From TrEMBL:
Domain of life assignment: Bacteria
Protein's name in the database: Uncharacterized protein
């Protein structure tokens, strides 16, 4: 159980580290910013906003 917890923490840290890199690169490159925003959660939220508007 301890090993699973350690793997979960490493996975979360790696995810946020990758997101941070993509956001930082987004300041210099539009392509990197597109990759950063091409996130399932952000994409679904933007779709919900579109459907909510008349």
């Amino acid at each position: 159980m301890k090993a699973f917890f350690i793997i979960a923490v490493i996975t979360v840290l790696a995810y946020w580290f990758w997101r941070g890199i993509m956001k930082f690169m987004g300041m210099f490159s539009d392509h990197a910013e597109e990759i950063f925003y091409d996130d399932g959660r952000l994409l679904s939220q933007s779709e919900e906003r579109k459907s909510a508007q008349p």
